[in-house]
């Protein structure tokens, strides 16, 4: 595994914190990104449900199930989960006249409130002050633009689906639509104080992030909705939707932080991109490189170290997967991301408790010619299983066997990948 002296690790942490990614993380924290994700997702939920009810109520005859069919198709639901969604959005007969006016009013109020929350998020990211009454006007314009662009995109996608190789057409259309959407919306919500060229990079990051999130949705949402529906009934759909909206808002808030930090950065590669693609206000000064910013951040040796850390993390995740496949009593319910989380937690437990337990068990380890070290590793695996519900272990025996498999697989993979990990290894640049 990768071992670094404490002073090198501290210096690497400082350089990482001062790099572009570190500054993006600092901006995300300074704008209270986590709180804004929670507020945005909850506000979006209160605006989304009335909108879906209104659409179901005002749908033409024969299309009353348009909302439920769309959700079932988007999330790939079937069985009890699909039935629960259909039941949730079924409109009672005679409800059209009584609900349409009230729901329309509620949708408008909730929508404007939601766009105002997005407006505050962008203002916090770009350090822009409020504009008084004009902010409300631009929030309403932002809501109108958001709904219009979403409807246009939905119509274009409906037409493209009838073409051959529709998925090939869908990629550039979705990318272009996402870029236009997430450049024009902050442009309006920031009261047009920030030139749209400066918003292009953040719009591109948002477009890529939402596209990747859309692909991940089709993979992780079906089992999640099915699980929550089986456990909580129709309330499980609400839980799944809230979690989905929270993740989506996290993508938007993080993208806003990255876009704002890119605009403020004066590193050489940032200035080169701004100059090449004119990502700056034409009425302002041409961006120049700040020598202090260019000298800070990560160097090539730091990137190599981070690459080696990533490889070691993936090796440990592969070893944990091998243990779940070989040892009957060890299981990790979930996909690849769950394996990454469990392996990260196992690595932290080994780093914190491992040295202490191995020191205490040193006499027994010597007496057993190193065999007792497997027991210690099994205890560490059992501690990890006790800290998370994502790792199931039947007992200490299974943990010991699992730890043995993890040790063997980790050693083999490190030997195989050592030439790759050590590529470019040399004297570190100070």
UniProtKB/TrEMBL annotation:
The chain crosses the membrane at residues 37-59, 95-115, 136-156, 168-190, 199-220, 232-258, 309-330, 336-357, 364-383, 395-417. One of its GO terms (cellular component) is plasma membrane. It is found in: Cell membrane. Keywords: Cell membrane, Membrane, Transmembrane, Transmembrane helix. The keyword Coiled coil does not apply. InterPro entries: Phage_holin_4_2, Virul_fac_BrkB. It comes from the Bacteria. It is a multi-pass membrane protein. Pfam families: Phage_holin_4_2, Virul_fac_BrkB. This is Phage holin family protein.
